[in-house]
Write a structure and sequence with these properties.
The chain is α/β, with parallel strands linked by helices. Helix content is 33%, strand content 27%. It has 14 helices and 16 strands. It has helices at residues 15-24, 39-46, 87-95, 106-110, 116-122, 132-144, 168-177, 219-227, 242-251, 253-256, 267-276, 320-331, 349-357, 371-378, and strands at residues 5-10, 30-36, 54-57, 73-76, 98-101, 125-128, 150-159, 181-186, 189-194, 200-204, 208-214, 232-237, 285-294, 300-309, 338-341, 361-369.
Amino acid sequence: MPSALKVLIVGASGVFGSRLAELASREEGIELTLAARNLRKLEAVAGDLPRKPGLARIDRDTVKSVDLVGYDLVIDAAGPFQSSHTKLIDAAIGARVDYIDLADGREFVASFPCFDNAAQEAGVTLVTGASSIPALSHAVIDKLTAGWQAIDALRIGIYPGNRAPRGRSVVEAILFYVGKPVRVFREGEWQAVPGWGGLHREEIPRIGKRWASVCDTPEQDLLVERYKPRQSAEFFAGLELGLLHVGLWLCSLPVRLGWLRSLRRFALPMLKVAELVRLVGSDRGAMTVRAKGIGRSGQRAEASWVLRADANRGPYVPVLAALAMIRRFREGSAPPPGAFVCSGLLDLRDFEGDMNRLGMEHWWEFDEVPANEESDLAA
């Protein structure tokens, strides 16, 4: 009988880490250890799990290779990854332990291939971005555009419900880029727009309108690299309450005008303000993926996918890719040694079972317009 996969989750007391711990603790063939700086918080998380995990006090800011010896796989669910150091990656390589993270930092993910040689020499697999983007979003796009002759535009959005729990690291990640120039691919070229700019209302089928703004994520770069869209590749996120969403847009103005370098130091007071109105709004989160291009038979094609997560299940979505990767390592079907971005490593089928078990809905819409009809409409 094969031995259990020894998995260490760093940042297990956070919003995403605790949910990954909950799901991973239900998996057979996994020996789970939870790690964070605060053991008291870890004990609270562990107390709600069906199987008692091990606990370890590990700080990703000071971690060393010796702290990881004895584990098979370490997962960084802590964040924020914007301007983050790489000590946990270095420690994993030194301890010869496989590594996964939920990174959404643009520079962090872009620089990840620099670990490829060291990972191969150590015989370990490193995977970054095992989260909603790019792991899930690219699995969806692969299905949406299968067989298409060309892709013109891609548009992705994430819209949490206002009652969803939020941690300080998530707020810091957003505030890191708010008001700063963000590089986006629009109108067939790279352009700079203000972070949290492009303020608008997005219509989400079966959910309604949500606020949306431009975000700075690795997704923009990865979409262009993988799918070669001819016109645009955009990513938006939105807060349900106009008070918070538009308020953050207003707060971005001092950064845009050069009066402040960043809003990141205001993460704690802003989090407290958001908590004051947490019971307003809904517990309904959503994710959308839209594509336009040329379909299988040369027609203009449009396709969209919508994920709806009620009852505050939205925070589970970012950890589903990491859960799927844990299973890959357990089953011996993980990528070979090296450093990989989690794009194209998972199929949508790797997510659907967990979505169903968590009570999430998702659906598709496809539309192709024959060339002669398109000409008539244009006239």
